[in-house]
Design a protein that fits this description.
alpha+beta, eight-stranded antiparallel β-sheet, 17 strands, elongated, BldA-regulated nucleotide binding protein, P-loop_NTPase
């Protein structure tokens, strides 16, 4: 169950380490590691699937075509890149195995996923084979670039909870071999094992860092309007994936950045019914806050009175206008912020929204993603309204 070999081609020359960059320019965006392809070789309903990823990508298609599954695989790779264990990333791994998959002679079944990260080191490929039965474990992993295999692991002894790893050295010995645990991504562990003394080792470390940075900083978001209407306890001020604590975050962000708050107000004025001159949080009882829309004529609308589409629109607009410091997201703290990009995974992106709201949200997302600090990968049943929009990649899926 190890990944199939990458096609042979001349190895890319080693590129110099990226220089510190300020945010906002085309050159800066080129230096940031970004995922450009998601591969679901054998994962749930997907087989031999490869999906392009742009700065704003929408998976579209009818129910059951695998939109949510694609986002789930993206999130799982992000978790593994952040160092999470397999059982944490795949709490119900049997559902990831293709339905018609049959066990082999050793009664083994599993799945394969992968991705490509582009950046200073050029395109770097990661392919992972996961065994689900009889035990959850990584049984094969390959990190490669330009046809050169930088890391390869394989399960040699099923009785041991480890895989045999070999990574590119290009010194007195062409490769270095050592065991790695079988419940985590080897690529994320390489900095703990590779000394970086040879050009080959430094190349391995640079490619691994590019992949890990591209995978990190992922925020999975699916706002739940039913939990956004009531007052919420004050807490950390960091937005959760369900946006249940939206009022608590507004309590914080309204005072922190007037410019971004003004953009949020403008977005809500464009997407909500009736005028909006401000959005704020006020005490809702002992230790709680509630969110309000200021209508500008002395009237305020409690969020409890808003429709589901308005609440989802408001939550997603806030996500797009903030960042890792406000969202509950794992970031690569050892990497400068200018070299990172936050990826928002938004399932059911347009659920409950009317045509005006989804178009306004798309315009806001395209504007924010064009700057390079944030990317959006979403799922929508019908994305015909987004086709042809500059900067939007629509991936049509079939059942």
């Amino acid at each position: 169950m190890t990944p199939s070999p990458a096609p042979a081609s001349p190895a890319r020359p080693v590129r110099p380490a990226p220089r510190p960059a300020s945010s906002g320019t085309d050159e800066d965006r080129a230096e940031r590691p970004l995922l450009t392809e998601l591969r679901l070789t054998s994962f749930a309903a997907h087989r031999r699937a490869a999906f392009p990823l742009g700065r704003l990508t929408l998976f579209a298609g009818p129910s059951g075509c695998g939109k949510t599954t694609a986002l789930r695989a993206f999130g799982a790779l992000a978790g593994l890149g952040g160092g999470a264990d397999l059982d944490e990333v795949f709490p119900d791994p049997v559902t990831c195995v293709p339905e018609r998959s049959r066990p082999d002679a050793q009664r083994r079944r599993g799945f394969r996923i992968g991705c490509t990260a582009d950046g200073p080191e050029g395109p770097v490929r990661l392919d992972v084979a996961v065994q689900v039965e009889p035990a959850l474990r990584v049984v094969g992993e390959r990190l490669s670039t330009g046809g050169l295999v930088l890391l390869e692991t394989a399960l040699r002894d099923p009785a041991r909870r480890q895989v045999q790893a070999a990574w590119h050295t290009a010194g007195q010995s062409p490769v270095t071999r050592a065991p790695l645990p079988d419940d985590r991504l080897g690529t994320a562990l390489l900095p703990l094992h590779v000394a970086g003394k040879t050009d080959g080792q430094r190349r391995v470390l640079a490619a691994a860092e590019q992949m890990v940075v591209a995978l990190r900083s992922v925020f999975a978001c699916d706002p739940r309007p039913g939990r956004m209407r009531a007052p919420v306890p004050t807490g950390s001020g960091r937005l959760l994936g369900g946006c249940d604590n939206l009022a608590d975050v507004l309590w914080r962000t309204r005072a922190e950045c007037g410019r971004r708050h003004a953009h949020l107000v403008a977005a809500l004025d464009a997407g909500c019914a009736g005028p909006v001159t401000d959005v704020l949080a006020v005490p809702g009882g002992p230790g709680t806050v509630r969110a309000l829309l200021d209508r500008g004529d002395g009237n305020r609308s409690d969020f409890g009175r808003l429709g589901d589409g308005e609440l989802r629109y408001a939550a997603l607009a806030l996500v797009l206008l903030t960042g890792p410091g406000v969202l509950e997201v794992d970031t690569a703290k050892e990497v400068p912020a200018a070299m990172q990009t936050l990826t928002v995974l938004a399932d059911n992106l347009d659920r409950g929204m009317d045509p005006r709201q989804r178009l306004e949200l798309l315009r806001l997302a395209a504007r924010m993603c064009e700057r390079g600090h944030i990317r959006l990968v979403g799922a929508a049943g019908d994305a015909s309204w987004a086709v042809g929009t500059d900067g939007v990649t629509v991936v049509h899926l079939k059942p």
